[in-house]
Amino acid sequence: MADETRAQILKQHPDYGKVIESDLEMILAHGEGEIGRVLINGLGTIPGSKIQERLAWFNGAGDSLRRLLVSEPRGFAQMSTNIILPADNEQADAAFVILQADKAHAMSGSNTLCITTALLESGQLPFQGNETSLHFETAAGLVPVTAYSDDGKHCHSVRIENAGGYAETLDATLEVAGLGKITVDIAWGGVFFALVEAEALGVALEPSAARVITDKALCVLRAAQEAFQPVHQASGTEGIAYAMVLGKAANGDLRGANVMPPGRIDRSPCGTGTTARLACLAARGGLSAGETYTARSLIDSQIKVECLDIATAANGAPSPKLAITGRGRVYGRTTLLAEPWGDPFAEGFVLADTWGADLSLIRR
Q1: Buried b (16+ CB within 10 A) or exposed e, 204-223
Q2: SS3 of residue 151 by DSSP
Q3: Are 315 and 347 found together in one domain?
Q4: Pick from 117, 95, 9: nearest CA to 46
Q5: CATH number of the domain where residue 346 is located
Q6: Rounded to two decimals, what is the model's pTM?
Q7: Residue-range definition of the domain harbouring residue 280
Q8: How far apart are alpha carbons 11 and 3 in whole angstroms?
């Protein structure tokens, strides 16, 4: 590749020259079925002195790097790519941001399962015997985790302490195109959710109904995003990220489908969504410290949830501190070449067949 061509590409895509130092090494993992690749090597310094500023960089000047990592042909719709960063907080072992189809996000339970498992099993962080205590810095706050191992080589489960969920608005009525008036709750669980009962949408929380669930929940998400612009004061996170469709299993377990832009369902039970859900339950007086729940996804993967304590959020709402336990599994490794020279799809592409019908939800 001629030097002038390389210079031209760097001019068009300055993020490559600024932060990609070598081939990008990733550990492939899933958290209860939801894929969360973990990038462990290849990036240099991400601009910003705080984790919130680095997150904002990926949603601004670094957006072409996000698109390279999450779009086809290097990525795909049903996954996240987690960027491991040095922590500023002295209590933290590492920091991370989560890159998804629409933008970079602050926190995710399934991705925390992936990150913990991947960093320990790859030797990036050391096991500490049968129980390894870690802290991760996120734009949503400091997240304590405990990894459990029988052999000092593999994680059989990970416990996440996800504090600070709270209800922003309860029983809000939305006029939703094609659906009429729908009642939703707006709550924080690490990002903001619009939560809606499956019964209100007339859907069954079963794998065969995934497309119908997604189509209807996207309509709710769009209406909620237009009606509400919540701001999480501590992190500065703005706006509603996802729509969580709620129900229960026949045995009484929580069941849910977290619908994510541009139109797909979270394969995991969604730890942040379950946090938002239980925060709404607490706001209605239905949650007490010591209570435990099992939350299940559409593929029947599960997390165990224990309410450790209930504090008070800045808006005066109950704010439960939850311990969420689930499984992360490493299933491979991959390397992306550092230089996309000559590739017409260096920033990726998306098609509505697998990326969902509402491609306008993806930042391009």
Answers
A1: ebeeebbeebbbbbbbbbbb
A2: coil
A3: no
A4: 95
A5: 3.10.310.10
A6: 0.93
A7: 166-326
A8: 12
Is 122 within the bounds of a domain?
A: yes
Which is more confident, 182 or 4? Answer: 182
Is 99 in the same domain as 226?
no
Question: Is the residue at 274 inside a domain?
Answer: yes
Taking alpha carbons only, the member of 257, 255, 272 closest to residue 109 is 272
Residues 104 and 194 in one domain: no
Residue type present at position 293: Y
Instruction: Encode pLDDT of 197-206 as tens digits.
Output: 999 999 999 9
H or E, element range at 178: none
Same domain? For 95 and 233 the reply is no
> Residue 172: helix, strand or coil by DSSP?
strand
Residue 70 φ then ψ, to 5°: -110, -20
9 with 50, same domain?
Answer: yes
Catalytic residue IDs: 108, 270
d(CA 121, CA 128): 12
**Number of domains observed in the structure of the chain:** 2
Percent of the chain topping pLDDT 70: 92
> Do 139 and 275 lie in a common domain?
no
Cβ-count burial 29-51 (b if 16+ within 10 Å, e if not): bbbbbbbbbbbbebbeebebeeb
Inter-helix orientation angle 51-58/63-70, to 10°: 70
Rounded (10°) angle between helices 271-283 and 109-121: 140
Q: Quick one: 7 and 134 in the same domain?
A: yes
CA distances (Å), origin 55, targets 103, 142, 248: 9, 15, 34
Residue pLDDT, tens place only, 31-68: 999 999 999 999 999 999 899 999 999 999 899 889 98
d(CA 62, CA 188): 26
Q: E strands along the chain, which residues?
A: 20-31, 34-43, 80-85, 94-99, 104-105, 131-138, 141-148, 157-162, 166-176, 180-188, 192-197, 240-248, 254-260, 264-265, 292-296, 302-312, 318-326, 328-336
